[in-house]
What does this fold into?
Amino acid sequence: MIKLLSKSIREYKASSILSPIFVSLEVVLECLMPFVISLLVNAIDVPVDEQIRMNEVWMYGGILVAMAFVSLACGALAGMFCAKAAAGFAKNLRKDLYYKVQDFSFENIDKYSTPSLVTRMTTDVTNVQFAYMMIIRTAVRCPLMLIFSLAMTFIMGGNLGWIFVVVIPPLTALLFLIMRKAMPIFDKVFKKYDNLNESIQENVRGMRVVKSFVREDYEKKKFDKAATDVQMDFTKAERILAWNNPIMQFFFYGVLSTVLFLGSYVVLKSAGATTVTDVSQLVVYGMQILMSLMMLSMVFVMIVISVESARRICEILQEKSTITSPENAITEVADGSIDFDGVSFKYTAGAERYALEDIDLHIKTGETIGIIGGTGSSKTTLVNLISRLYDATVGAVSVGGHDVREYDLTVLRDSVSVVLQKNELFTGTIKENLRWGDPNATDEQIVHACKLAQADEFIQGFPDGYDTHIEQGGTNVSGGQKQRLCIARALLKNPKVLVLDDSTSAVDTRTDALIRKGFREYLPQTTKIIIAQRTSSVEDADRIIVMDGGKINAVGTHKELLGKNPIYTEVYTTQNSSATEVVPTAESDTLKDGGNDNE
It folds into this structure.
C-alpha cells in the first residue's frame, strides 16, 4: 500500500526529503540549547575573574542567539517544504484516482457507487494528506527529539535518565492498544460516509421529484439516519481515542514529579557534583521527551484514521479496467458494417442468466436499423457491445470487418457515436458542449450538425444563440432540446456508426421524422441504429429488430412484421388505436427558467 501511494509523490520528492532534513537540524539545535544554557549559568556562578566571566557569558549568549535563529529558520523551511510536499502529494493522488476512474469500463464503474468514488477523492485523500504531512515532519521530529533528549538526560543527570527509559514501554503499549481498538471502527465509518454522500446526491439530483411528491420529510429522516450512523461510529472511536491525552498527562506529571523529587535528593547528597541547574535542564529534557511522546500519539491517531482511507484509495488504484486496448491495435475502422456472431452476454460472471443470448445479426454499411421491444428486453445492452462499453461473454461483435476487441478503444469509440438514454450536458456554452463531438469543429460544422438534429431553430431563438450557457446537467433546457443537442454532438464526430438509444422520445413525431429525414439525406454511408418505443420512429428503417427477453424475436421491414409478428403488431396497434393514442404536445423552444424535463 505504501509503495503504491508513494508513486503519487513524483515531483514533490525533493520537498519530501528536505522537510525531514530541516526538521532534524531543528531538533539537534533544540536539544543542544538547554545544554548551552547550563554552561552559561555555570559560567555566571563560577568564582573567577570578572572579565573572564563576562567573556564566557557573551560567548555562550551569542551561541544561544545564533542557535535560536538557525533553529527558527530550519523550522520555517521544514514547515514550508512539508506543506508543499503534502499538498502536492494530495493533488497527484486525486489526479491519479480521477484518471484511473476515467479508464474504467462500465463493469468497473458498476462495482463502485458514485458517492463512494467522490468520498475517496475528497475525504479519504484529505485524511491521507494530513497523515503524510505528519509523517514527513512530526513523525521525524518526535523520534529524533526523543532519542536526543534521552541521551542528554544521561549526560546531564546520570542515572536519573533511567526514569524516562522505564516509562516509555508501558506508555507505548497503551497507545498501541488504543490504536488497535479504534481502527476497526474507522473501517466501518467510511462506508457509512458513502451512504451519507449517496443520500445527499440522490436528494439533490432528484429534487424535482422529491418536491413533486412532497417527500421532503421522508428525505430528511433518511439523511438524519445516515448522519446519525456516522456520528455514532465517530463518537465511539473518539471515545476510545479520548484516553490518549489523559494517559499522556498522567505519565507526564508522574515522571516530572519523580525527576524533581529524586533530583532534589541527588543535589543535596552530591555535595556540588550535581547542581540545581543540571536538574532544571534535566526537567527541560524530560518535558521534551514527554512532549515528543504526546506528539507521536497524535501521529498515531491520524495514522489510525488514514489507514482505512489509504486502503480505500489503493482499492481504486489497483483496480484493473476490464476493457483495454490490445497490443498492436487496429487504428482505423474501414466502414460501418456490424456483425454479431453467436453473441451471449451477462453483466457479471456469477449472474444466473444471460442478458443477451444467441444473437446472430449482420448489418451492412449505411443501413438504417430499428430496434423495438419491451422494457428489459436488452435493447440498450445490445448496442453497448458495439462501442465496446462491455465485452461479449460468448461470441464476437465486429465493426468494419474486425472484432471490436482488436481495435484501439479511442479509434473504435470515435467511429461509433452513441446517444444514450440518459442525455448528459455539461456546464458551459452550447458550443462547448457540442465540441465534445469534435474539439476542432468550425462554427459552420456546428450549425450544420444542429440543423440535421433540428436544434438550430431553437438555439437561434436564445438571446445568446450558440453562446447560451448550459447549467449543470442541462437543467435550463427542455428534455426535447437536450436530446437534439446530444444528437448534434454525436453527429459532429462524423461517425461510421450512429446509435440513437431512445434519443427522440421527448420530441414530437414531426420533429422526429425531420431528424430521420436529415439522416437519410446527409449520412447515407453512416450505419444508423435507432432504438425506439414508438413504431413511427422505425417504420421507414431498412430493417426492424424485435427484441424479447434478451433474444431476437424477429427481423424484417415494417410491412413484413405488421400482422405477422405478434409483439410488433401489438405495439403498433396499441400506439395507433384511436382510443389510446396520445398526441404529443409540441414542446416550447424557448429557454426556460430553471429548466423543465416534463416533455
Notes: The CA atoms of residues 267 and 388 lie 83 Å apart.
